[in-house]
Amino acid sequence: MSWELVLWLLALCAPLLLLVQLLRFLRADGDLALLWAEWQGRRPEWELTDMVVWVTGASSGIGEELAFQLSKLGVSLVLSARRVPELERVKRRCLENGNLKEKDILVLPLDLTDRSSHEAATKTVLQEFGRIDILVNNGGRTQRSLCVDTSMDVYKELIELNYLGTISLTKCVLPHMIERKQGKIVTVNSFMGILSAPLSTGYSASKHALQGFFNGLRTELDNTCPGIIVSNICPGPVQSDIVKNALTEDVTKSSPGSYGDQSYKMATSRCVRLMLITMANDLKEVWIAHQPFLLMPYLWQYMPTWAWWITSKLGKKRIENFQSGMDADSFYFKTWKAKHD
Ligand SMILES: NC(=O)c1ccc[n+]([C@@H]2O[C@H](COP(=O)([O-])OP(=O)(O)OC[C@H]3O[C@@H](n4cnc5c(N)ncnc54)[C@H](O)[C@@H]3O)[C@@H](O)[C@H]2O)c1
């Protein structure tokens, strides 16, 4: 075959290959490194067994599902949140369906905003299991309110809980991991740690702060203790109680928005599976969401001018949805997802 013919064939195939890749990307639900790890990387079933994993915010949503999937891998689990009955329910679910025994799961009530209790809680875990292999910083709350209406107490609460509570617990666990020269610190961040949207100014600020903190911590540990892995997990919309539990303009007022229909969001089980793949493969930062949500962090990173334009257009609809009592994102993304299911 002549070189000319080969070049012609390549020229014909390249657009086809590009088109195939584009179509694959439009079906993707994680960033490329994460999907590569899912395809070719280490399996959670090989890597995470026998580990001691401490999950905060384990009483509902992503944290509950994470506990459930981890229980099938044969880890030792510490389940933390504020509501003990809910944690006991999650524990029973793990025992019924997982490979664990009573002694493998510790229910440890913890309020992330009560920072003075974090040292004692860490000691309790170490007394019970002797080590902490993975800390999953998952507990947190979102926000649904316009900045102009929101009291400073709400901003304070979001920073106390999502940011200061998370770094306080991390700082309690870190010396133990440094002593062992190993461990994984996994933080459930959000697309809102990369971009921003109306109605979530305080939430977004707290998640951006976490992103800055953990990216900085990773560079410190890379040089002083490379066996400790810092992973930032950034999901887009995932089915959970997050909107139901959202802070509003006043700390004492619960979320008024409708949150019944979550069909446009990613299934919690899929999000958690991708989180386990992240942990098994020591990925530093991952983005998890269905399209078209997944496009957003790519746009914000690589085409910020376009990202601003689109966010502003979508933001207008988001505010209108919210003001008419609907979940901010449900209406306009539901149609898109229904077409692609
Ligand atoms: N669901 C989503 O769409 C989504 C998207 C991106 C990021 N996230 C992040 O995922 C994490 C889990 O949220 P979720 O979606 O499962 O929501 P969720 O409301 O179902 O779960 C939040 C968990 O955090 C706990 N929590 C709240 N305040 C706490 C406190 N003061 N002390 C200790 N625990 C506390 C709750 O009890 C609950 O267990 C959060 O950090 C959230 O920011 C969620």
Characterise this structure:
With 341 residues, this protein is α/β, with parallel strands linked by helices. The chain has one domain (29-340): NAD(P)-binding Rossmann-like Domain (Rossmann fold). It is 53% helix and 10% strand. It has helices at 3-27, 32-40, 44-47, 61-71, 84-97, 118-129, 152-180, 201-224, 268-280, 295-302, 304-323, 330-340, and strands at 52-56, 76-80, 105-107, 134-137, 183-188, 228-235, 285-288. The chain has a 7-stranded parallel β-sheet, sandwiched between helices. Helix 8 (201-224) links the parallel strand 5 (183-188) and strand 6 (228-235). Helix 4 runs parallel beside helix 5 (84-97) and helix 10 packs across helix 11. The chain is globular. 42% of the residues are buried. The mean pLDDT is 92. Nicotinamide-adenine-dinucleotide binds at residues 56-63, 81-82, 110-113, 138-142, 161, 188, 190, 235, 237-238, 240-242, 245.
Provide the CATH top-level class. Alpha Beta
Separate helix tally: 12
Radius of gyration: 21 Å
User: Which term fits the overall shape?
Assistant: globular
* Low-confidence parts: none
GO cellular component, one term: endoplasmic reticulum membrane
InterPro entries: NAD(P)-bd_dom_sf (IPR036291), Sc_DH/Rdtase_CS (IPR020904), SDR_fam (IPR002347), SDR_family_member_7 (IPR053011)
Keywords: Oxidoreductase
Pfam families: adh_short
Give the SSE layout:
Elements: H1 3-27, H2 32-40, H3 44-47, E1 52-56, H4 61-71, E2 76-80, H5 84-97, E3 105-107, H6 118-129, E4 134-137, H7 152-180, E5 183-188, H8 201-224, E6 228-235, H9 268-280, E7 285-288, H10 295-302, H11 304-323, H12 330-340
Parallel strand pairs: 1-2, 1-4, 2-3, 4-5, 5-6, 6-7
Helix pairs in contact: 4-5, 4-9, 7-8, 10-11
The protein binds nicotinamide-adenine-dinucleotide.
